[in-house]
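Hi team, as promised in this morning's meeting, here are the two structures we talked about. I've kept the exact order from the run log so nobody has to guess. The first one is mostly here for context; it's the second one we should focus on when we meet again. Sequence first, then the predicted structure tokens.
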Amino acid sequence: MLLGFRPSLRLLSPRLQLLQSRCVQSEHPATSAAVGSVLSALRSICGEGGVSFGAAVREQHGRDESIHRCCPPDVVVFPRCVEEVSALAKVCHQHNLPIIPFGTGTGLEGGVSAVKGGVCFSLRNMDQVLDLHPEDFDVAVEPGVTRKALNSYLRDTGLWFPVDPGADASLCGMAATSASGTNAVRYGTMRENVLNLEVVLADGTVLHTAGRGRRPRKTAAGYNLTNLLVGSEGTLGIITKATLRLYGIPEAMVSAVCSFPSVQAAVDSTVQILQAGVPIARIEFLDDVMMDACNRFSSLSYAVSPTLFLEFHGSERSLEEQVLTAEDITQSNGGSDFQWARDAGSRERLWKARHDAWYAALALRPGCKAYATDVCVPLSRLPQIIVETKQDLMENRLTGPIAGHVGDGNFHCLMVVEPSDPEELHRVHLFTERLARRALALDGTCTGEHGVGLGKRALLCEEVGPEAVKVMQRLKDSLDPKNLMNPGKILQ
């Protein structure tokens, strides 16, 4: 239970002492009485139960699923509406307190770590689905709504939201990190599926990036503020509402699994299927190490070899054409016959096994930690980079099963590492840097979907160049001149 108890100011925890010191150092000189005033202001906005100093609660909100160490905030607040978020932000702005937005904590780059302390805005209580317009294929959601909750809400409408990063992440958090996932090859990433955002800026100003209530499918009106905020990782503002595109549920769906004699053959098949114009919904690659891990973890019996998981959406007739073309291409590259998953239950089990790849990789070395790499390259460069990466892993004696959304050139090595072994940690660090720079050398990116967070700030500069980073910094300074919004992320 989350309790917003009132601690004695004579018995401040180290974190609250830090909060006091920040107040003293700000342009508003403060004593412990002022600290009490700040805490009273937070409680007056979201209630006694909406403010927590508990160590367990703060630690929960100081970590995500990455390998980065936990950096707890000084205090966690639980606003219930945009008005409360705005009022809380004004208090933080007045007292120079960092602001860290928190959705579900499923990120993979340390994006929620309170590296400079401050106030974590946990948005889980804002969990309403708003303004559904089925005839226009759009919906607005608050930040506590997850993708599974939205699709459950939409179940009887004939509509769905297809962006699927695997974890049951919050949709506004997915917008903040520009998430994608297994369906991106057909339906795009969050960047293509967000129509408008309601955002609270560092000073409490409420911004509607496309105008209040606007939801056109396209616009040529001014700067694209929506896409500026998508992928900003909480460094420019707190997303309090997202207007999203929806899609009709396909008439028919079918999934298949196909194994290959080599990585090259599997990835070549992927590229050729896309070049043939097959509107495939999902096409996922798992290498032999990952397939072995998934077989063990999910009690499967697929071949332990490079494998594609495929899914086709459309009418019954169009599916026949898609499947025939895909089968011809895979078999020409030495692929096996398709193993089918036709009914909803079979498809769900197949894709659950794919989504459980993280946990399957961890099970290869019980007691170890996992770190997910994330690069993306042009499709024509995909076979080269995966083959070179496999060789790099073997030469450096590293456990790194590969799984990827290869339909859009994005793949991950799920590095399983013993955190108490500094030599192995060093080898993993060097490997991940080589992988990122290998992607950059092939005209790709150091992150296709996880974001920059804490770990890829230097790589961002290498990727876009110092002039682009300077422009990003000027944008940050313009919207957040005190550097209160999730400081220490993306930019140095």
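And here is the second protein, the one for discussion:
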Amino acid sequence: MKAAAVETERRAGGWNEPAFRALAIQVLVLAIVAGVVAFLGLNLVGNLEARSIRTGFGFLWQAASFEIGQSFIPYSADATFGTALLVGLLNTLVVALLGVILSTVAGTFVGIASLSRNPLVAPLATGYVELVRNVPLLLQLYVWYAVLTQMLPAAAAAPKLPFGVYLAKSGLHFPILHSGLWLVLAALFVGMVAAFAYGLLARRRADRFGGPPPLWPRALLLAGLPSLAFLFVAMTTPFDVPRPTRFGFSGGGQVSPELTALLIGLSLYNAAFIAEILRAGIMSVDRGQAEAAAALGLKRGQTMRLVVIPQALKVAVPPLANQYLNLAKNTSLAIAIGYPDLMSIGNTIINQTGQAVEVIAIMMAAYLAISLSISAFMNWYNARVALVGTQ
């Protein structure tokens, strides 16, 4: 009888039908959201017109008329606002990429050290994690910036480090090559392709004949080819060496103290979280896996690399992706120490043009693209790790 009543109610249709009710609710919510967005948009346009503020993106082709302290592409005050935003975006991408690499390396080292049986190493690693995680990142950036700008000597008294490197209040100064870098980059690209191809062949050979594939050929391809290319360029091309003067340095390359402080602060801060993520992932692997690997004759390093870490990554990759997203978004704190990232340059453009809506929209789109790119890569890597682990 109950089933017949339900069938009768379903045939009656209208609001009592679950599918119709769900669709109606979704349409209603969508209409409310569209109405709110339209109201806010009309209100915004009316306020801009009342204050005679121009709208549109035509300002991107106007002269910026301000300098930028750190730029990885040619830039001058005569460049456009669009070029200035591109400089800020590249500065943000460089910090995010280097921060991900450095924090991953440091976090892996600290995470493994926290599991050490050494009575000194493990407490030091745990103390580092607890200290860094519980101090605000902004405060850490202030501390590192103060250390680099107040405790280092001026240019005239800066000590000369090996390879013609100087470390002073103005930053890290080092010799550079003005030509021949394309050969080093080409060698690096060839080495990466060759190492990837070797990895595929070595994995197939290991699946067919057994035994772990050696790592030294891949490391030799990745580091050997670029090193040989760099040595060739260094022997045939003169270096532009930095020279200390009374008021600074002339020649050579420079890494500003703002960039250095930002990289150190972001890397060490996120390394503490990554260390805990990796430690938890390693501890999630059953101890019997390591015991079985030892019974097969694998050394401790081989056991960690071939048995424990591949299984731990299946647990660690999703929270690692979230941490990388946090790192990319935290680069916006660079404005606090004067590093010209996308947020800092965007604020300068807003002050000069008054077109806050357009600039903020550009910055939101840029950060959204960065976050989606990181998410897409980590999702691909997570699927790859999961697929390898289930084979």
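Starting points for discussion:
Residues 2-50 form one domain.
Strands lie at 160-161, 165-168, 171-174, 243-244, 249-250, 253-255.
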